[in-house]
Amino acid sequence: MPLPSSPDSPHITVVVDAARRLIRVARTSIPLTGEADVDAMVRRARAELDRAGRRSNVLLIDLRVALLSDETNYAAAMRKLRAEITRGFARSAFLVTTSVGRIQVGRFLREEHIDAPVFADEAEALRSLGVTR
Per the confidence metrics, is the pTM higher than 0.85? Predict the structure, then answer.
């Protein structure tokens, strides 16, 4: 069931695919204007992921349209978001577009001790999660 971006957090969407036991959290292309935007994303992610069930699903975090500069400009706040999004999932994976994005997100995850691979190919990411089409 798609849960589009909302007025309180237009920077993130959450889609629950119950049949595949997959939750997709996607950042939108709307630029962040401050840490309050990240705080809103944390609240939205917490509510939606808790409602969907973290332990019974796998997680794909799709950053392909997100601005990588937001990850750097709001680094401390984004650490909270990554920790909240990945909390409680047995398996998660990140999806990016570029090699630079893969390197940058991989570095963030290593520094934050988040055990999740980073992919530029969605099919590979889904396979790593054990999800079939």
Answer: yes
